[in-house]
Amino acid sequence: MEDKISIILPIFNVGDHLRGGIDSLINQTIGNENLEIIMVNDCSTDGSGEIIDEYAEKYDCCIAIHHEQNSGAAYTPRNTGIDVCTGDYIMFLDPDDRYTPDCCETLYKAVTENNADMAFARFRRIFEYGGYVQKSYSPYEDDLEHAYPDETFETANFLNVSDFVWDNVIEKIVYGKDHEVTYKRDGPIDRIIIDNIEQEPDLLKMAPSVWSKIYRRELIMDNDIRFQPYVSGDDMAFTLETLLKAKGIVYLNNFMCYDYYIRDLPDDKSITNTVNVRLLDELMESYIYCRKLTEGFSKEVQTISVNPHLLHWMNTWKGSPFTKEENRLLLKKVNRLKKIHKSDMKTKMLLSSMTTAIESSIYTSKA
User: Fold this and answer.
1) Closest to 10 measured CA to CA, from 35, 37, 30
2) Which of 73, 114, 130, 280 is the least buried, fewest Cβ under 10 Å from its Cβ?
3) Regarding predicted confidence, which is higher, 112 or 264?
4) Can you tell me whether residue 251 is helix, strand or coil?
5) Cα angle for residues 94, 212, 118 (degrees, 5° grid)
6) How many CB atoms lie within 10 A of CB 86?
7) How far apart are CA 135 and CA 331, in angstroms?
8) How many CB atoms are located within 10 Å of the residue 143 CB?
């Protein structure tokens, strides 16, 4: 293999999960001699820094970088990794998760054999303490029961309603109608191969996970794509920008490339699992940034790339007891998006319902 794949890990107090994440890279079927594993320590205080130094000393493919100041979010170490990497292709891993054993090999073959700018696949949400597995959302029918006969998948459902209500009502509201542009929806689809996102805008309905994708180096470097400074929503902005600018996209609908662990113990929470006003504020900033990226694209691209996230934002907001001043701050951000995101009547109604709900909360709040 002539090419090298750079894999970038943002690391901050990953604790007991770090070794498993790095080992899932070391043991890739493609061979770790074909990898450049860049581990960026953002001033961890739990011994994570010592662990990555250990791997860097033991394996030629591992590089340990230590920040002098903590940035408070994943976007800075990810950008550090992009700036120093030398690989022909770039991937990302959150170090408390895992690549499946043939992740790199399968995605690399998909992107190179089709001369594409990027390729991506499905992932599993593993609820470690709940004992069940969700398959990531896809707008296409799959054949995963044959590809993974020993696995029982549940459908992703972030609103905690019944599966019947989710499948027949909520999912249709969140994701809208199917846009059959290039590929028909009359049966399971194994892979999507397109020249640009306008040929299959439904790809934008899927979770904006940077770690389920492989990117050609030139796509990121020539377009100067970097992670935006949001504590939450930086991955959404990065993913959308790459999909909008990619010339050649491959999606593998029946392949699981990543295990995303949901750890719900009180002492095992990430920054983005802690709901506060900054998280929702910066999420809305990322939506505004993403909407501006889609100027000049079709109405379908503009709508699909933002609208599914708005219901998730509102569901998160509803479960958080914000003060009157915090809600006023969030309302200003929603109104900013409302001014520029006017793609159709459904969008206008959705944003109007959001502002009405927040205004009502401000009016009735005592604090």
Assistant:
1) 37
2) 130
3) 112
4) strand
5) 130
6) 10
7) 34
8) 13
Distance CA 192, CA 116 (A): 12
The amino acid that residue 232 corresponds to is S
pLDDT at 271: 47
- Yes or no: say if 265 and 130 are a contact pair by the CB < 8 Å rule: no
Q: What's the burial of 124, exposed, middle or buried (CB within 10 Å: 0-12/13-18/19+)? A: buried
Letter string b/e over residues 292-301, b meaning 16 or more CB atoms within 10 A of that residue's CB: ebbeeeeebb
- In angstroms, the first-to-last Cα distance of the chain is 62
Secondary-structure breakdown of the chain: helix, strand, coil percentages, each rounded to the nearest 5 = 45, 15, 35
Q: Beta 62-66 vs 35-41: how paired, if at all?
A: parallel
CA atoms of 39 and 105, how far apart (whole Å) = 20
Q: How many Å apart are CA 185 and CA 51, to the nearest integer?
A: 47
Distance CA 348, CA 150 (A): 44
Which residue in the block uniquely carries the two structure tokens 């990121």?
220
Strand partners, 215: 90, 118
Query: pLDDT, tens digit, for every residue of 182-216?
Result: 888 889 999 999 999 999 999 999 999 999 999 99
What is the C-alpha to C-alpha distance for residues 280 and 295, in angstroms, rounded to an integer? 23
pLDDT exceeds cutoff 50 at 163: no
User: Locate tokens 């950008």: which residue?
Assistant: 79
* Residue whose pair of structure tokens reads 């006023």 in the numeric block: 328
Rounded distance between C-alpha atoms, residue 267 and residue 263, angstroms:
9
